[in-house]
Structures are given as structure tokens and as C-alpha cells.
């Protein structure tokens, strides 16, 4: 059935409506094949790359957290050693001051 027979049998309005429906259907098929399918494939590829990047970043963050903990532990050891040195210096200072007291009394005129 061609367009002229359709127009004669059903009327021009119905024939135009059928032609318009066919045109819309073909346009949607064209858009689906040439635009939506490549766009969907690119989007899926982007999401796959994004997932890989997030996994790598997670590994880096885990490594940074581990390194931070290690550095913190080392710094705790350094702080403990510094506290010990400060205490020892304080004790030495007290010993020196205690040793100087008799000398100071002897050198002062009465």
C-alpha cells in the first residue's frame, strides 16, 4: 500500500498522521543508534575508569594512613627519649647547683 492509496482510502489526515509517525519512528531509531548508543558506551567506559581511579586512590590513602601511623609511632619514641633527656638534664642541673652551694657560701664574705 503506497501513500496515495492510503490517502484515498483513509483520508489525507490519516495518511499524514501515518507519515508523521513513520518519520518520528525513523528519527528515534537514528538517534538511538548514532547518539544514545555511543553516549551510553562512553559513559560506561567513564564509570569503569572512575572506579579504577577510586580504587587506586583508596590504596594510596590506606598507604598514607599506614605511613602516618608509623611516623606517629616513631615520633612518640622520639618524644619519650627527649623527655628522658630533659629529666636527666634537670637532675644534672640539680646536682651542679647542690655542688655549687658550699662553694658559694665559702666565696661570700661574712
Helix/strand structural class: mainly alpha
Helix content: over 70%
| Distance from first to last alpha carbon | 138 Å
Give the uncertain stretches in residue-range form. none
What's the Cα radius of gyration?
44 Å
In percent, how much strand structure appears in the residues?
A: under 5%
Written as H for each helix and E for each strand, in order along the chain, the element string is HH
Mean pLDDT: 88
Compute the number of strand runs. Answer: 0
Shape: rod-shaped
Total number of helices: 2
The number of distinct structural domains comes to 1
The main sheet comes to:
none
Question: How would you portray this structure in words?
Answer:
By secondary structure, the chain is mainly alpha-helical. It has one domain (3-107). The protein has 2 helices and no strands. The chain has helices at residues 3-10, 12-107. Helix 1 packs across helix 2. It is rod-shaped and about 140 Å long. The N and C termini lie far apart (138 Å). The model has no long low-confidence stretch (mean pLDDT 88).
Topology:
Blueprint: H1 3-10, H2 12-107
Question: What's a concise summary of this model?
Answer:
The protein has 110 residues and is an all-alpha fold.
List keywords for this structure.
mainly alpha; 2 helices; rod-shaped
